UniProtKB/TrEMBL annotation:
PANTHER family: ARSR FAMILY TRANSCRIPTIONAL REGULATOR, DNA-DIRECTED RNA POLYMERASE SUBUNIT I. Residues 112-174 form the 4-vinyl reductase 4VR domain. This is 4-vinyl reductase 4VR. It comes from the Archaea. Transmembrane segments: none annotated. SUPFAM superfamilies: Ligand-binding domain in the NO signalling and Golgi transport.
């Protein structure tokens, strides 16, 4: 029954793409704000089945973890370059408004920042699997902060909900925080 509905809905909503729409530049902003007319919501459990970070833990794939970090890093840089994020506070707002995660700027000291993530799409509700899995988020924070600060930063996940902690925590280290 569901399959017939999906096929019908897809056919009903499908129209020929106009030439100017086809040639439209693909940007992160366009992807984020795209119209999802005929995509059924599959929820968090569906996301996790498709999530490479969770699957890499189950299969022990180190290359996938590195790819997740790199993809997060590139996305973080794009968020800043396309003007979607201009500061740590705007990143916090962006992530919340797009229902990705709740980011807490927990501590800002001379040479380090501590970020805490609550209700992350990736790890909320997961059982304790004993390993951190927020490789994408680590890369995302690194990409955003390097672009904002115009300095090299080091980001490390020090706690993860997938390890049984009540939140994921990230430590960011650099020499300058003038632009935060």
């Amino acid at each position: 029954m569901v399959n017939r509905y999906v096929k019908y809905t897809h056919r009903k909503n499908s129209t020929k793409m106009k030439k100017d729409e086809k040639d439209k530049e693909v940007s992160l902003k366009n992807v984020i704000t795209s119209d999802r007319k005929y995509l059924l919501s599959y929820g968090v459990s569906g996301f996790r089945v498709l999530d490479p970070a969770v699957m890499s833990i189950l299969h022990g794939d180190e290359h996938q973890r590195a790819n997740m970090f790199l993809n997060g890093f590139k996305t973080g840089k794009l968020l800043v370059r396309e003007g979607l994020v201009t500061s740590l506070e705007s990143l916090q707002r962006f992530l919340f408004e797009n229902q990705i995660m709740i980011l807490d700027i927990y501590k800002i000291l001379d040479k380090e920042i501590e970020l805490r993530v609550y209700e992350s799409l990736r790890v909320s509700g997961l059982p304790n699997i004993g390993k951190p899995i927020c490789h994408y988020e680590t890369g995302l924070f690194k990409g955003v902060l390097q672009e904002i600060l115009d300095k090299k930063v080091k980001v490390r996940e020090t706690k993860c909900k997938a390890q049984g902690y009540p939140y994921c925590q990230f430590k960011v280290v650099t020499k300058y925080y003038d632009k935060l």
